[in-house]
């Protein structure tokens, strides 16, 4: 429901997006509802998707260029998006790996954007940022507790984590990452992850076998190869 404190631009409802019909003793949608819901979705998108990625789409650069060198991977992501509700309901996810500048984050953002457009809840973090947020829960003046943050990370329909393996490892880092991945595994919640680590052995060395094993069960693994597009000339 829309916020009642936001006035109807047409003056026909109380701000809720519905008009009471006294004759039928029911409510019908106000004509303001579609455009206001679209505005609300746009606000949510702006709050979650970084500005650089808000306009991404399959049929425009850079994705059209990524598709030329990785057609199978882009087709797999198109299919995942077409079947988004079924995939999220089943807890299926994506694991995108490859060198810097190969399009991993862009493709992952397309999936997250599609989930938001479908009305799903999404949380997007780089792993270093996520770990920094977890650390703040241990501060004396913390706004959120560790438990409430873990609940949030478990409950969202889609958790998107960039740069897995980028953080300097420690027992604490490994424990936090496993706790998040395992909680979502047990609740059959989807994850989309990206990493620059291209060999399984590298991932195991960085985040350990038990976390890698969980992610392999949860995700379709898609490699992305090629030169760094951000350094390409011409």
Name some characteristics of this structure.
234 residues, disordered C terminus, 47% helix, Rossmann fold, single chain, two-stranded antiparallel sheet, alpha/beta, globular
What does this entry look like structurally?
By secondary structure, the chain is of the alpha/beta class. It folds into two domains: 1-48, no CATH class; 52-224, 3-Layer(aba) Sandwich (Rossmann fold). It has ten helices and seven strands. The protein has helices spanning 33-48, 63-69, 71-82, 84-90, 104-117, 127-136, 146-155, 171-186, 200-207, 209-218; strands at residues 18-21, 26-29, 93-98, 122-126, 158-162, 190-195, 219-224. The strands form two sheets. Strands 4-5-6-3-7 form a five-stranded parallel sheet, sandwiched between helices. A two-stranded antiparallel ribbon has the order 1-2. Helix 8 links the parallel strand 5 (158-162) and strand 6. The longest helix is centred in the N-terminal third of the chain and has 16 residues, at 33-48. The termini are far apart. Mean pLDDT is 86; it is low at 41-47 and 230-234.
